[in-house]
């Protein structure tokens, strides 16, 4: 078996959504050569053998540390001679949109959230019903009775924290209110510990402070979909204003990493693991990565994010992670289907990555998640983005779930002015629906 790890850096923007919807949607584009050279000079490898699969992933760390190779070797036991090739994309959401537009998306890939469900059939193969027996979020990526993606894991967002860092700073209890959270940050900073690593420079983690927090802090999982009903969804007095004000406060008070511009995602894991930094606001999937970076499992905890000062009602999301599917243009669809089933149910990825299982008959085993549940959060199951919401976002050229516009709003000199700009784009897009 030859397992090849490749790392491709692409430059893309939400305008690619327009390319997908217009110039690259017909069958005449299906035969773009596999060795086509993009405009930026990055060369994509030529065609692969018939028993080979190219798998696109956001988990560059698992490609680099050999974990993906281990999954491939395990898969080969039941599929002798198969050649699995992995490609890790740095900014997956935006990068993969370009890959889809140029038909260089391999055989198996994660479904980008920017595509509406009615667009999925243009790029993905329908998956068999048998794959979805006893599975959470089975219809999340479906259209007209056909399912195009299966969740790779389930997670809830909250504060991942280093207990030793808390103890060193004199933080004796998990903060249950926003004021207590800020006070814990103050103590950590005074001790020389980075209170919260927001990973501004990595871009994608900024979605936690934007659309992800906005989606659950009100207790209404349809908050984003309801944005399509108004011309001015960004307001200082709603969940958008409250969520982004928290992120801006952390930065303004010096409660985050000092170097905000560098992509320090990999570095940040070691910082949390060592106790030089104390907290992440991320999903429970990140816990395993912090432990792998050197933390003792018993030193890492997890609690619901205290986004306001009401400790008696704390919402937290129950969300699918990325959905995986099969390229419509794959020449090895049967083998790709076997890989998808194996990856989700048999590879060990779910457990090793710290996710909750997508299978409805499996109980969570992660100790930190049991701590999370001990604080009695009200779990909200995420809802699927509506066609109207996604259409409006695409027309407005706003790349939800990429983190880019959250970066801009967090860094804006005047948040209300930043909201005004967003609302102008949104209003114009609604008028063109």
Automatic annotation (TrEMBL):
Q: Which InterPro entries match?
A: Bact_solute-bd_prot1, SBP
Would you tell me the protein name for this molecule?
ABC transporter substrate-binding protein
Q: Which UniProt keywords apply?
A: Cell membrane, Lipoprotein, Membrane, Palmitate, Signal
Which residues constitute the signal peptide according to the record? 1-30
The record's section on Pfam families has: SBP_bac_1 (PF01547)
Query: What species was this sequence derived from?
Result: Paenibacillus aurantiacus
């Amino acid at each position: 078996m030859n397992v090849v790890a490749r790392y491709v850096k692409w430059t893309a923007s939400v305008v690619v959504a327009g390319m997908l919807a217009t110039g690259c949607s017909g069958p005449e584009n299906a035969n773009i050569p596999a060795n086509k050279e993009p405009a930026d000079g990055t060369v994509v490898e030529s065609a692969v053998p018939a028993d080979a699969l190219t798998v696109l992933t956001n988990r560059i760390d698992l490609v680099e540390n050999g974990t993906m190779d281990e999954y491939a070797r395990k898969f080969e036991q039941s599929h002798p001679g198969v050649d699995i090739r992995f490609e890790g994309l740095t900014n997956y959401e935006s990068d993969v949109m370009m890959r889809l537009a140029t038909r260089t998306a391999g055989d198996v890939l994660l479904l980008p959230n920017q595509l509406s469900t009615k667009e999925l059939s243009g790029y993905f193969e329908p998956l068999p019903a048998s794959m979805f027996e006893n599975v959470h979020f089975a219809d999340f990526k479906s259209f007209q009775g056909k399912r195009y993606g299966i969740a790779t894991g389930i997670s809830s967002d909250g504060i991942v924290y280093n207990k030793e860092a808390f103890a060193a700073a004199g933080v004796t209890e998990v903060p249950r209110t926003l004021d207590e959270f800020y006070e814990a940050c103050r103590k950590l900073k005074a001790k020389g510990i980075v209170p919260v690593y927001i990973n501004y420079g990595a871009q994608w983690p900024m979605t936690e402070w934007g659309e992800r927090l906005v989606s659950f802090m009100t207790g209404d999982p349809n908050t984003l979909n309801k944005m399509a009903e108004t011309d001015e969804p960004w307001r200082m007095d709603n969940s958008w204003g409250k969520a982004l004000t928290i992120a801006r406060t952390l930065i303004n008070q010096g409660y985050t990493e000092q170097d905000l511009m560098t992509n320090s995602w990999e570095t940040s894991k070691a910082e949390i693991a060592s106790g030089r930094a104390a907290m992440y606001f991320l999903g429970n999937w990140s816990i395993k990565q912090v432990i792998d970076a050197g933390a003792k499992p018993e030193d890492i905890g997890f609690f619901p994010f205290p986004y306001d000062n009401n400790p008696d009602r704390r919402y937290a999301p129950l969300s699918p992670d990325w959905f995986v599917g099969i390229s419509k243009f794959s020449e090895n669809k049967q083998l790709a289907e076997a890989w998808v089933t194996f990856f989700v149910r048999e590879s060990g990825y779910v457990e090793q990555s710290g996710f909750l299982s997508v299978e409805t008959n499996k109980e969570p085993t992660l100790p930190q998640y049991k701590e999370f549940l001990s604080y009695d959060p009200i779990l909200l199951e995420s809802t699927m983005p509506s066609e109207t919401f996604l259409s409006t976002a695409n027309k407005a050229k706003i790349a939800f779930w990429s983190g880019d516009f959250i970066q801009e709003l967090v860094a804006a000199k005047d948040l209300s002015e930043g909201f005004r700009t967003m609302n102008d784009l949104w209003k114009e897009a609604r008028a063109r629906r």
